């Protein structure tokens, strides 16, 4: 998830399409360089389903529970 004002990465989920029910921010634990990340991404591209659309909606009383669909 990027902050729109300056396109700064604020939340990163590794392997998003095959994620669990609870998504965890992985941006704080990144220790690999960008080059290594690109190689890893290309290698796994065939294994991971393609995400075409993501929707964030709020449900519950006063829309207090966010759901990522």
Structural notes for this entry:
- There is one protein chain.
- It is globular and about 40 Å long.
- With 69 residues, the chain is of the alpha+beta class.
- The strands form two sheets. It has a two-stranded antiparallel ribbon with strand order 1-2.
- A hairpin with a 4-residue loop joins strand 1 and strand 2.
- The mean pLDDT is 69.
- It has one domain.
Shape: globular
Could you tell me the mean pLDDT? 69
Give the strand order of the largest sheet, numbering strands 1, 2, ... along the chain: 1-2
- Could you tell me the strand content as a percent range? 15-25%
Class from helix and strand fractions = alpha+beta
SSE run: EEHEE
What is this structure, in a nutshell?
With 69 residues, the protein is an alpha+beta fold.
Defining key terms:
69 residues; alpha+beta; two-stranded antiparallel sheet; 4 strands; 17% strand
Topology:
Elements: E1 2-3, E2 8-9, H1 34-44, E3 56-59, E4 65-68
Antiparallel strand pairs: 1-2, 3-4
């Amino acid at each position: 998830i990027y902050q729109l004002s300056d396109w700064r990465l604020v939340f990163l989920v590794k392997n998003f399409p095959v994620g669990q029910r609870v998504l965890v921010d992985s941006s704080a634990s990144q220790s690999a360089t960008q080059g290594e990340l690109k190689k890893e991404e290309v290698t796994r591209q065939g294994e991971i389903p393609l995400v075409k659309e993501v929707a964030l909606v709020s449900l519950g009383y006063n829309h207090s529970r966010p759901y990522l669909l």
